[in-house]
Amino acid sequence: MSGTTQSLSDQIAADVQSLIEFYKEQVSDQKLTISEALSILTRVASTVAQLLQSIAGYDQATVRDVAINTVLAVYQQVLEPLAIPGVPAFLESWVLDPLIEREIPVVIGGIVDGVWGVISRLTANSAGTLVAATSAQAAVLTHPPFVPF
């Protein structure tokens, strides 16, 4: 990895580690309340907004690679250790985990490419590198409309 890619990776790794620690604090009692879930989602949304602002100046391939590696690391540290109720451990470790790990790069790469296309229409310079968004563009990117779930 180049020096700039490594610094982006380091920044994202620190942000993700902070999210993982926050998640572990919230579920330390082995329960997750609605309030805790909303708190986690809010923290994730805030971190994603900050990360979107930090990718200015990086090319699409770099951002895609860093995103894929970050999601794989989060999966391996947070989700993979969780047991899925009703699924035998051998099936989970031999079939599901490898399948999920194989699909993460495809899914995350597709998401990054799609988001990159939208963001680049708003903020790209003539070389195709993202530049800092104007305040109006940043508001659109970091404050999406409310979607109930």
Overview of this structure, please?
With 149 residues, this protein is mostly helical. It has one domain. It is 72% helix and 0% strand. It contains five helices and no strands. Helix 1 runs antiparallel to helix 2 (34-54). The chain is globular. Mean pLDDT is 75; it is low at 144-149.
Topology diagram in text:
Layout: H1 3-26, H2 34-54, H3 60-79, H4 89-123, H5 135-142
Quantity of strands, as a count: 0
How many whole angstroms does the radius of gyration measure?
Answer: 17 Å
Catalogue the unreliable spans.
Answer: 144-149
Strand content: under 5%
General form: globular
Q: How can the largest sheet be summarized? A: none
Count up the helices.
5
Throw out a few tags for this protein.
149 residues; mainly alpha; 5 helices; 0% strand; disordered C terminus
